[in-house]
Predict the 3D structure of the following.
Amino acid sequence: MSANLVVTNLTQKFGGLTALNNVNMEVNFGEIVGVIGPNGAGKTTLFNVITGVYHATSGTVVLNGKQINGLKRYQITRLGFARTFQNIRLFKQMTVLDNVKMGMCCRSKCNIFDNILNTPRRRREDKAQEEKALGILERLNLLDYKYDSPASLPYGEQRRLEIARAMATDATILLLDEPAAGMNDQETAELLKTVSGLRDSGYTIILIEHDMKFVMNVCDRIYVLNHGELISTGTPDEVKNDPEVINAYLGKEEEK
Amino acid sequence: MKNNNCFKKAWNGIVEFIAMHQLPIMAVLIVLVIAFPFMTTNKYFLRIATLCLINIVLGLALNLVQGYMGQMSFATAAFWGIGAYAGSIGVMRLGMSSMAGMVFGMAVAGMFGMLIALPTLKLKGYYLSIVTMGFCEIIRIVEMNWKELTRGSLGIMNIPPVTIFGHKFKSGSETYIIALIILFIVTILVKNLVNSNFGLSLKAIRDDDSAAETMGINIVHVKRVNFVISALICGFVGAFYAQYVTFIHPSSFASGVSQEYIVMIIFGGLGSIPGTFLGCIALTVLPEMMRGLLQYRLLIYGALMVIMMNFMPSGLLGNLDLGLVKKKVLEKRRKKSIAQKTGGEAK
């Protein structure tokens, strides 16, 4: 299978601080890839560089043979990336349904005149969007909340709503930043089912997560970052037994 | 605390009632406002009513920028003034017809809107407010001093009244109806706009612009287009205003006037069309009723702002969406009926 997303020699510096140093990564179509590492390892920075929040100091991000770093954020999203945020960032004054519909705005074929004059084309599109949004909400088990404010949702539901909003952009690659953070065991188990279900329906998923049980169960491959450098990659089992990874998480064994 | 709950319940009840009976209530209101000029012959009342209508249009235009996009703009009066001056100069010097003058005023205001929007809407937060404040003042000074074009502090007099198909609309009740038609059209357009994908993008930008951009929205473009639309509306109604009052003066378009519109929509409700109506009508009629307190009006406005900001930061009807309230009520009823049915079967 051809490689979908290739990150080559990616370096991101903030002044004197090197947040990412020569990171190489490859994500294939239909995979779930985990990015783990201790706090401050550069995981979220990696996401931010891929989605265009920062422009990398050097190195390239290539999607299907097309270089995407340097493009604007909304352009990258339109190429098929969508992400969720570590600290939940839903649109709080809009309803749950509108939050999802909002994700579809970037695919809208209507111009400003269609919008102002509410033309038949606009009405057709609106109907299609509404149906699709309800479908996504149903799939993520959020249908009961559709007219509520996202701020009134329980924590796990808010995280799921972020995934729903990301799916609404018609993305093929979902970047989930700590989707299981703050969830209890039952919620995490549900999320596990959701995420693997997404993979089965054709999404490619890259996720950052601290919950090791979750990561080891759901991911096909794992990249381990520490201090901005890639220290290990491989299947969950390989990574678990890598002495470098154990060092990074638990510290070096003292020599006797 | 209990009292407060009672009040809230009653308020929700009223809102739900209105939401569920939107059509009949709208019909009654429309009949009332159309019948108004035939019920009274008092010129003063008609004039206040027409001003109300013009103010609501300006309030709607401002609410697009401030309520839905979330950036405070002081440019309402500037665009209004540009529309008024461009419209009357077009009619008086370039020999345009009355309608062409309005369209000309709209176009010129839109052009200035574009001029402001191109560099400033890349900025976030209050920078737009500062720029528009300065812009408003610049426009007023130009109107004041470019004597060849605007006659400076003498103002432009004897502007021909609104004329459509050769008919001069001179009487108060006729111009009232024209203003009503303008308001009706603008309201429908604004309603369409805020309920569309464009409106969703605007609200998303207001809530979290960085997340909105990550969701694939070209936020700078959306903000610019929205700002220009707001300027176009102000310009059109400005040209109409000039032909209605037949005399314009730079002081009508000072930055203090913009602040009055900001107070109106903050009072009525940011991001809400019924709120704009309420705020603009209340704050156009109230000062007229308190003529005796005219000197203290700004003081009262200030106090009102402070109170509103403290207790109801988004206005009386802030973010009220009657359509949504209706959907919620229907959903609740549907659930209830399903629960009753299944309950009945269980028995």
User: Anything to note?
Assistant: DSSP finds ten helices and ten strands in chain A. The CA atoms of residues 5 and 83 of chain A lie 15 Å apart. Chain A touches chain B at residues 51, 53, 72-74, 77-78, 82-83, 85, 89-95, 98, 101-108, 110, 112, 114-118, 122, 125-126, 129, 146-147, 165-166, 169 (CB under 8 Å). The longest strand of chain A covers residues 3-14.
